[in-house]
Specification:
Layout lengths: L10 H25 L15 H18 L3 H20 L6 H4 L2 H16 L13
Length: 132
């Protein structure tokens, strides 16, 4: 059985890429709800200071923090909680099955962000820049 330990040295880079790609896609969920970009949600833009508006702010600006890799662990903790809340409050009541209730992305985001809480930002982040 071959071992793949030679890949271990690339782990910080893979983690950084996971963080960046997840953040870019996550930000789009926030900008859709806040600004109607790239397309307005079918339900329309949420009114300011409603639960959906606060969620959109977390998605857009929390996603930006994750993208840059700044305060990654605490921001990821908050976003994982937001996604868990979104799943159980808005998706799970529709069906037991994520494929049917549309909550598969919320579950994946929840666990990617939860992973970032424990793993940190990885490469390409402000959190891990070299200090001189």
């Amino acid at each position: 059985m071959p071992t793949f330990t030679f890949l271990d040295r690339y782990s910080p880079y893979a983690l950084g890429l996971l963080r960046i790609v997840a953040a870019l896609i996550f930000i789009a969920h926030g900008t859709q709800k806040l600004f109607g970009f790239p397309i307005a949600p079918a339900s329309g833009l949420p009114p300011m200071f409603t639960l959906f508006w606060f969620g959109a702010v977390l998605e857009a600006f929390g996603g930006l923090a994750i993208l840059l890799g700044v305060f990654t662990r605490p921001v990821a903790f908050i976003l994982a909680g937001e996604m868990a809340y979104a799943y159980w409050m808005f998706h799970a009541p529709k069906s037991l099955y994520p494929l049917i209730n549309g909550g598969d992305a919320a579950i994946l985001y929840c666990f990617v962000f939860l992973y970032l809480v424990f793993a940190g930002a990885g490469a390409f982040s402000i959190d891990n820049r070299k200090r001189v």
